[in-house]
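Please, structure for the following, as tokens.
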Amino acid sequence: MAETKTEGQKLKEKLLTEKKNGWSELSDAQKKTVLKFSDGYIDFLNKAKIEREFVKEAQKLAEANGFKSLDKYKKLKAGDKVYYINRSKNIILAVIGKEKLEDGVNVVGAHMDSPRLDLKPNPLYEDGGFAYFKTQYYGGIKKYQWVTLPLAIHGVVALKNGKNVEVKIGEEDDDVTFVITDLLPHMARHQMEKKATEIIEGEALNLLIGSIPYDDDKISQKVKLNIMKLLNEKYGIVEEDFLSAELEIVPAMKAKSLGFDRSMVGGYGQDDKVCSYCSLKAITEIEDPERTAICLLVDKEEIGSIGNTGMESLAFETFLGELLALTGEDKTPNVLHRLYQHSKMLSADVDGAFDPIYASVADKRNASFFGFGVGMNKYTGSRGKSGASDANAEFVAEIRKLFDENKVRYQLAELGKVDEGGGGTIAYILANKGMDVIDCGTPVLSMHSPYEVASKFDIFMSYKAYKAFMK
């Protein structure tokens, strides 16, 4: 016979919040669904380590699900599926809703760029019998994490004749890899006495790329010349072409299931490709929404969202203007401003998950935990919420209701203790234009490292959250 609950137990259930690990509430069939979803994510992550690759794969997925390029349309109606690509490093997808655009749209916005190393404009040099590429780091990294790792080169070399040469070296099993060397411990006494920020200097992040000299005793820089000869034979480039190249250095390691129970994903670039993928996957499954649903995937968030492919650019505004024109709504004054004022957005960016090994930097009552669902941050910023958009209470309540109705497991958190943590996303940029915005993304361990970790349960809940919001 079931034990009768006391009045105190009933009151506790009614009034207090008890956080639970979401895995414990899933049936075996539901667990299989959660685990299977991440198979597609892992495959996508391995194909798309940089922004240009992500856009290319996103375009393929969109077209396979009935989306057409915006320039193919002369008029838009409810149910139409469109995408827009900006300079190969932004992609925006929309499913046109039944309501007018000026009554607002639902946007899920994420960024595809991740911390990495970029080649300098004049990268190639020779020293001590070795050839190297000089690099500049991109975004917030711990520089010491990038040494003695197998590294790959991805990107494009833009030639003066207008053609782009695509480069992707280090990913295939029979491919070469590259490395940034480190000092052996036997000779590193002084190095080990330095601060963590100084152990590896930025100018020391030089990529080792070769050591065989060109066979000609009458020339200097023989190793450098031999490397350039190999690159010219394979890609048809000369040293000057590096001046107009975008070549990114990323870990050559594959994303894989992590843990004996396969409950997690380990891999490079999950900030913020996990949210980008989940929002992309969600919009490809949206049909006939009431309000227009938009998946906004941008570049440059890791360095301030600036530039013509960052969130601060006019690319999104241009896209909205085209939608208004193609639906015939561009005739009314200030219609774009009204669209912004009536719109809602989930800023889909990762959250820092609680790590018990480094518990001292977290407020456990206000931290995101693995397996507890998608993480929401009412505000980000740092030191007194500086730089945060700080979502309105009414919008937070609206999202809570939506997620509860759609059985989306979520948790509200902040990034670290007061005066200890903090960070920023693209949320404030759209909030400044009048949208209701809240940060909503997958909790991640080892954020900004070469190998980040996320829970498959939380990844699936992020996808469910974005799909519920877009519907």
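The chain has a mean pLDDT of 95. The chain has two domains: 19-114+268-470, 116-251.
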